[in-house]
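Revision sheet: structure tokens.
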Amino acid sequence: MLGLLSGCGSSVAPSVTLADLRGRTLQFALTDVDSLERPSTPGAHRVTVLFSQEEGCVRLTDGVTATLEGEPMTLVPGGFSGSGGRQTCESPRATFDFDPARWGGGAPQDVRITLRDDTHTVDVVLAGAQAKRRLVRGGGASGTTLQRGQVQTYEWQPASDTVVDALKVSLTPRSGGLTTSLPVEQEGNTGRFLVPEASTEGLYLLRLDGTATVRVLSCEGVAGCEGGVVHSEEVEVTVAR
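Predicted:
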């Protein structure tokens, strides 16, 4: 999981070059979150790469550059951070906030991410990573009306991704009320769920969440590359008879 680790020891993180990190794993995460309630959340459409945490806290030396398909990424050198007497160790990382409209404008494209300094180059290519993730209604149905007591089908796109676990699905009444989590039957990239017969008719917020893997085409300059995609979306739907 990408994040911060506490208890790294000394309050001074030694500076390292990319060559010093060649034995680590480069972890990647593509976050693609479409929210009706919070449409402008920072990091909602972001690619992140970071080096795996090992014993000791380190900080990338100056002079490192990071690019995604030639476009500059935001580099966070890592090291210690914190306040109130509590320190955390932040792994070296780079982020890129993508435009979902641009990434959804055509067929999926491979993505090359490169980190470079005077000592070493790290390069990873992810198959079809440049794409807008969507959960599309299937089973011959369309529109935003869900029938009570009927099974609904949603398919993860693009098909080049591989969904890891069952989708998470919930319905929340727009008029106010409790959120209901619905059991999902997963088959490949397709999830199916039943709209309860006892559901009250009206407007609801349908939330769908999923995770998927992306194929690594090449991984050079580190011990390995691993990661995946997190996608969620919210849709206003009508539950009817």
